[in-house]
């Protein structure tokens, strides 16, 4: 049985499209390298994903006694969460909807073979 640990951030206030850009950069990297890459990224999604990766690493270390140096990001998924619908006033008494999208970010880390 392979050792895996998982962490999920639900309803993060960032659009899935923007979060996937960052998730694609760290997929398959070693856990240490992924955290380092995310630390120096200016994107909002990088900060959120970094916290989830660190949580997954801590889960692996505490729950399964994994060696942190051996871990790598096995899977990282960004799914769409509930959308917040907002109203913006426009000219001539009209209004348009603004969709504030949310994301569910799932990270699975496991031992690199």
Automatic annotation (TrEMBL):
<keyword id="KW-0689">Ribosomal protein</keyword>
<keyword id="KW-0694">RNA-binding</keyword>
<comment type="function">
    <text>The globular domain of the protein is located near the polypeptide exit tunnel on the outside of the subunit, while an extended beta-hairpin is found that lines the wall of the exit tunnel in the center of the 70S ribosome.</text>
</comment>
<protein>
    <recommendedName>
        <fullName>Large ribosomal subunit protein uL22</fullName>
    </recommendedName>
</protein>
<dbReference type="InterPro" id="IPR001063">
    <property type="entry name" value="Ribosomal_uL22"/>
</dbReference>
<dbReference type="GO" id="GO:0006412">
    <property type="term" value="P:translation"/>
</dbReference>
<keyword id="KW-0687">Ribonucleoprotein</keyword>
<dbReference type="InterPro" id="IPR018260">
    <property type="entry name" value="Ribosomal_uL22_CS"/>
</dbReference>
<comment type="function">
    <text>This protein binds specifically to 23S rRNA; its binding is stimulated by other ribosomal proteins, e.g., L4, L17, and L20. It is important during the early stages of 50S assembly. It makes multiple contacts with different domains of the 23S rRNA in the assembled 50S subunit and ribosome.</text>
</comment>
<comment type="similarity">
    <text>Belongs to the universal ribosomal protein uL22 family.</text>
</comment>
<dbReference type="GO" id="GO:0019843">
    <property type="term" value="F:rRNA binding"/>
</dbReference>
<dbReference type="InterPro" id="IPR005727">
    <property type="entry name" value="Ribosomal_uL22_bac/chlpt-type"/>
</dbReference>
<dbReference type="GO" id="GO:0003735">
    <property type="term" value="F:structural constituent of ribosome"/>
</dbReference>
<keyword id="KW-0699">rRNA-binding</keyword>
<dbReference type="InterPro" id="IPR036394">
    <property type="entry name" value="Ribosomal_uL22_sf"/>
</dbReference>
<dbReference type="GO" id="GO:0022625">
    <property type="term" value="C:cytosolic large ribosomal subunit"/>
</dbReference>
<dbReference type="Pfam" id="PF00237">
    <property type="entry name" value="Ribosomal_L22"/>
</dbReference>
<dbReference type="InterPro" id="IPR047867">
    <property type="entry name" value="Ribosomal_uL22_bac/org-type"/>
</dbReference>
<comment type="subunit">
    <text>Part of the 50S ribosomal subunit.</text>
</comment>
């Amino acid at each position: 049985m392979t050792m895996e640990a998982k962490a999920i951030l639900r309803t993060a206030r960032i659009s899935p499209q923007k979060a996937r850009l960052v998730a694609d950069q760290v997929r398959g990297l070693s856990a240490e390298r992924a955290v380092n890459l995310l630390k120096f990224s200016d994107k909002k999604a990088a900060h959120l994903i970094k916290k989830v990766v660190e949580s997954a690493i801590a889960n692996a270390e505490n729950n399964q006694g994994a060696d942190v140096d051996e871990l790598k990001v096995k899977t990282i998924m960004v799914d769409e969460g509930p959308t917040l619908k907002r109203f913006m006033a426009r000219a001539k008494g009209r209004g348009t909807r603004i969709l504030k999208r949310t994301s569910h970010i799932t990270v699975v880390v496991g031992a690199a073979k």
